[in-house]
Each structure stands twice: as structure tokens, then as C-alpha cells.
Design brief:
The complex is a heterodimer of chains A (110) and B (114). Chain A contains no helices and eleven strands. Chain A has 110 residues and is an all-beta fold. Chain B has 114 residues and is mostly beta strands. In chain B, 0% of the residues lie in helices and 54% in strands. Chain B is globular and about 40 Å long. Chain B contains no helices and eleven strands. The chains are: A mainly beta (110), B mainly beta (114). Chains A and B meet through strand 4 and strand 5 of A and strand 5 and strand 10 of B.
């Protein structure tokens, strides 16, 4: 099993749709979790951290399920500008052990 | 906060030449990472430093690649000699190793080796 796995997509959704991505991780000792967004030919940028109790930032909701070892990202009322690749990041047993998923590509259509 | 600063933004060089990529991390960050990204392989960790000391260089492709961090505000990634398969975007990133701090990326260096 790969350390961090994501469905590569692409997810093609209409504007206004709700879309959800999952990311599974193999190291049960993982400590911290993040979602990043990467636009074409740009660097990855932090979208949001993922907290144990789940957290929301506007249209974005992140959740962590430690028992099943996955994190999720929900985007409500999707906009054209949400089109990007979404990367999950897991910090494993040490503060330097950051593992990136390969990313899920989202394309929001008018 | 200026963020992570990388230079150059673009580098085009001929096979066999030496390439040096530079990075200035965010002040106060004690971890520095070098990544390489290609369409085929995604984002790959090459090496990371903690307090200027290399901790894990298992991702460095081969002896042609070397990285240094002489002080807390500067790091280099060198490729000598360069080959066409080294063409990629190279990202430097830094973070503070506590408080659930996220990783901050530089703009990247787009390297093309012809």
C-alpha cells in the first residue's frame, strides 16, 4: 500500500456542484494533515490544515478519520476558480517526514 | 513576510553543464526541503534539512545531485553534470517543525536541459 493515496481524477463538475476528495494514508502514527492546492505551472499553496474535529473554511470542509486512516475535502458550490489540482499532505512519525499524495485534478465547468 | 525565495525562476542549459539552484527559506523556519516535480512522477522529495543539517537525502537521484545549507537563510541544489532527464520544476519549501505548521513553497525553478 502506498503511503498516501489519492484518486487522480480528473473530476469534471458543473459550477455550483458539491465535490468531495478522499486521501488515504498508511502510517497510523501520522500526526498532521493538510490540503494544498496547485494551479498549473505554479507552486503548491496551503488550502487548509485538517484538525481532528474537522474544520470548515467558507465553502471548504476538511475531515479526518483516524480509525479508517483517511482525510477528506468537501467543496460546496464549486466555482470555476476552484479548478486546480488538490494535494493531500501527511506528516508521519517525524516533523521532517512529509508525504504528498499525487493529487486530484478538479475541473469546474460553466 | 517575503516567503520562500528561489532563484533563478527559469534555467535553460545544455547537457553536461553545471546547474545551481538557490533558496532562501522563511526566517525562523528550521526545516528546509527540496522537491522535484514532473508530469510523470509528480512531486518527489529530494532532500531535507533540519537546522542546516541534511537529515534525509535518500531521494537524491544520484551522485550528480548535491545540496548544501551553509546557514539558516540559504541553501543550494547543484546538478553536475546536468542531463536532459533532469528537466523539471524544482521547488524549495520550508516550515517550522512544531505547532502543526504547514509547508511553504517557493515559486520554483523551471529547469530545461537540452
Amino acid at each position: 500500500r502506498k503511503e498516501v493515496e489519492q484518486d487522480p481524477g480528473p473530476f469534471n463538475v458543473p459550477e455550483g456542484a458539491t465535490v468531495a476528495f478522499n486521501c488515504t494514508y498508511s502510517n497510523s502514527a501520522s500526526q498532521s494533515f493538510f490540503w494544498y492546492r496547485q494551479d498549473c505551472r505554479k507552486e503548491p499553496k496551503l488550502l487548509m490544515s485538517v484538525y481532528s474535529s474537522g474544520n470548515e473554511d467558507g465553502r471548504f470542509t476538511a475531515q479526518l478519520n483516524r480509525a479508517s486512516q483517511y482525510i477528506s475535502l468537501l467543496i460546496r458550490d464549486s466555482k470555476l476558480s476552484d479548478s486546480a489540482t488538490y494535494l493531500c499532505v501527511v506528516i508521519g512519525g517525524s516533523q521532517g517526514n512529509l508525504i504528498f499524495g499525487k493529487g486530484t485534478k478538479l475541473s469546474v465547468k460553466p | 513576510d517575503a516567503g520562500v525565495i528561489q532563484s533563478p525562476r527559469h534555467e535553460v542549459t545544455e547537457m553536461g553543464q553545471e546547474v545551481t539552484l538557490r533558496c532562501k527559506p522563511i526566517s525562523g523556519h528550521d526545516y528546509l526541503f527540496w522537491y522535484r516535480q514532473t508530469m510523470m512522477r509528480g512531486l518527489e522529495l529530494l532532500i531535507y534539512f533540519n537546522n542546516n543539517v541534511p537529515i534525509d537525502d535518500s531521494g537524491m537521484p544520484e551522485d550528480r545531485f548535491s545540496a548544501k545549507m551553509p546557514n539558516a537563510s540559504f541553501s543550494t541544489l547543484k546538478i553536475q553534470p546536468s542531463e536532459p532527464r533532469d528537466s523539471a520544476v524544482y521547488f524549495c519549501a520550508s516550515r517550522r517543525g512544531r505547532d502543526n505548521s504547514p509547508l511553504h513553497f517557493g515559486n520554483g525553478t523551471r529547469l530545461t536541459v537540452t
